[in-house]
Design a protein that fits this description.
The protein is α/β, with parallel strands linked by helices. It has two domains: 256 residues, TIM Barrel (Alpha-Beta Barrel); 64 residues, Four Helix Bundle (Hemerythrin (Met), subunit A) (Up-down Bundle), CATH 1.20.120.1460. It is 43% helix and 16% strand. The chain is built from 19 helices and ten strands. The strands form two sheets. It has an eight-stranded parallel barrel, surrounded by six helices. A two-stranded antiparallel ribbon has the order 1-2. The protein is globular and about 55 Å long.
């Protein structure tokens, strides 16, 4: 089994968590995940957050639908009722997710009104109950937590260490920490992703204080060079959000070789062509081309022909009859500057 930071990786999913793409509402759906998987075979991908109540009382099969090729894949749950979360974990188990993650970081009004997400960091005893119930229902599936360094007036240097200690005591073995506070009043969800200052140093200190835990840093990471640097400094993993969505090739195209030491680099052209069978299957099932290609607009970010690529797909992918031929037409306007090594 691979090793990192002098700590033996306990499971394959810990190894894949060296690099992950953050769960992002309205972005990391199954089409986005399939695109990202064309660029990296090893990076850990996450679903959008699904509430435990929706999973238990709603259309479970629709909410958890995914393609086997998306693995390694984690499901993110939201909720604050321990028994409901346990039932959601039980409902998700047959779908074969490699990890189930509890959201303790989202600051949106909708999440706050449901008393879950980042607001739960104010109630560590309830979090402990939630996590314990999830682990009890997991039947061996890895349960993780994604949190902030703190919320509102909390002093993260005082409140985060005991919070992580509580998670460890409840049985959590990997914690993803968004290295910003969440301000639940006064900042929008978008502002909460950029306005509160980053504190990477605190996350590094948490890793030093809890060497037996896998600590993954999220927040403010915009390049694969940064990912490598943070891993070299002792972190067990790095989670990238918006940068991986807006310029997926820059984050994921070389990840298998540079982060995981396995596989070859993948180009934007590789990914676009590899998506064609997925597009064809989606159209046969009654879907629309733009439901897939909206996630592909950033494939050629900063490259010659990117504007033409985006314009063709943005203007015409929603039209009746649009299909793989339109993607190939758009692709013909973008020069393949770096053909990949054949795999």
């Amino acid at each position: 089994m691979p090793q990192t930071n002098d700590r033996k990786i306990d499971t394959d999913i810990d190894w894949h968590a060296r690099l992950s793409v953050a769960p992002m509402m309205d972005w990391t759906d199954r089409h986005c995940r399939m695109l990202h998987r064309q660029l990296s075979r090893n990076t850990l991908l996450y679903t959008e957050m699904v509430t435990a109540a929706a999973l238990v009382h709603g259309d479970t099969a629709r909410l958890l639908a995914h393609h086997p090729d998306e693995h390694p894949l984690a499901l993110q749950l939201g909720g604050s009722d321990p028994q409901m979360l346990a039932r959601a974990v039980q409902a998700a188990r047959p779908f074969g997710f490699d990890e189930i993650n509890l959201n303790l970081g989202c600051p949106s009004d909708r999440v706050q009104s449901g008393a879950f997400g980042a607001v739960l960091m104010k109630s560590p005893s309830l979090v402990e109950e939630c996590v314990s119930a999830m682990i009890g229902a997991a039947a061996g599936t890895t349960i993780t937590v994604k949190c902030r360094i703190g919320v509102d007036e909390q002093n993260p240097h005082e409140t985060l260490p005991p919070f992580v200690e509580m998670l460890r005591g409840a049985g959590v073995r990997r914690v993803i920490i968004h290295a910003r506070k969440a301000w639940l009043k006064g900042l929008s969800p978008s502002e909460n992703r950029s306005v509160p200052p980053l504190d990477h140093a605190l996350v590094m200190q948490i890793k030093r204080d809890f060497p037996d835990l896998a600590i993954v840093l999220n927040g403010g990471v915009a390049s694969l060079d940064q990912v490598e640097s943070l891993l070299d400094q002792g972190l067990d993993g790095v989670m990238v959000g918006r940068a991986a969505y807006h310029d997926p090739v820059a984050i994921l195209g070389q990840a298998d070789r540079r982060i995981f030491g396995a596989g070859h680099d993948r180009s934007a052209h590789d990914a676009a062509r590899a998506m064609l069978p997925h597009i064809e299957a989606h159209l046969r099932a009654g879907g629309r081309l733009n439901q897939v290609t909206r996630h592909m607009l950033g494939l050629f970010a900063g490259r010659p022909g990117a504007r033409k690529w985006r314009r063709i797909l943005s203007e015409r992918a929603q039209l009746p009859g649009a299909g793989p031929a339109l993607v190939l037409e758009a692709l013909s306007h973008v020069e393949d500057l770096h053909p990949p090594i054949a795999s």
